[in-house]
Request: fold
Amino acid sequence: MTVRVGVVVFPGSNRDIDAVNALRVAGAEPEILWHETTDLAGVAGILLPGGFAYGDYLRAGVIARFSPVMRAVADFAARGGPVLGICNGFQVLAEARLVTGALLRNRGLRFVCREVTLLPEHMDTPFTREIGERRPLRMPVAHGEGCYYADEATLDELERDGGVLWRYANADGSVAGPEDQGNPNGSLRGIAGVRNAAGNVAGLMPHPETAVEAILGSDDGLGIIRSLVVSSAEWASTGSIAGTRPMAEAGR
Amino acid sequence: MSDSTRAYRFAVNVTPKPGILDPQGKAVERSLPHLGIAGVTGVRVGRRVEMAVEAADGAAARAVVDRLAGELLSNPLVEQFAVEPLGETVEAAPTGAASPGVASTGAGARG
Reply:
């Protein structure tokens, strides 16, 4: 049976159709979930897509955080279900405190839309397991508020606990610091995506869902989407995912 | 006063916490030489949100604003907020008698 993965649609989401396409390419059956529902229709995983939920009013992601569907998503995450937020979806997860940190205005103040190079870390997580060999991944970013920020102690803790899953890289393969050309937004320590301490919720600013077929310019994102699908299937059949632990134990 | 609604007006000023990079503030600072202005530093750009809160008294209204400011209007990871009382507005109940329609008190109150 095909695994069903929910794509949450807020007013202002605009990458939901890309997410639906990517999930199909990755072998899942996508299920659209409207922001006003609290019924997740029995899906085995959740993808929060990109866009400008609620017009990004006040702060990107904050109004979406209080929508009915996010209460259900928080419950789903607390039960150990896999949740991936992409771009605006990452901002929503950060505002909801389901992952650590904040996404600030890009250091250069401009909306940045271009291809970046990502370096994945920890290749055995629910969101990286299907990437294969560790290698640089090419995919686009498109955002105005993507500068990852957390205080130094939190950053140290994230790195120590394996919470950083993707970093921006320079052309020579080195990690792109806040001022480097490979870093599109000034993110601290080059962080492009993180996961929570329990391990089952992750977010990233770049768009793996628009890099899933060669005809789109890159299929480097497919491994990330496939990881979500495989983890969803695992959660649906066993009630847990390898490499994660209960939130109560993890503290988050 | 039992048949009137009391509303208390507030502004919440949200600014980046000290030490948080504020590229908008920096951009404003860098534009100042073009205006021939020198010696202005520490520009921080935030936002101001104004509101009226119906409540039994000023303290109850203030408690609502403090909660709203901390949970919604600001992100405590990166922003700080300051609540500024703007005064009290008393409106007669719709069925109201001869009391004045709107009376305002407080220094900051505006129509």
In short: The beta strands of chain B are 4-16, 47-54, 79-92, 102-105. Chain B has one domain: 4-97.
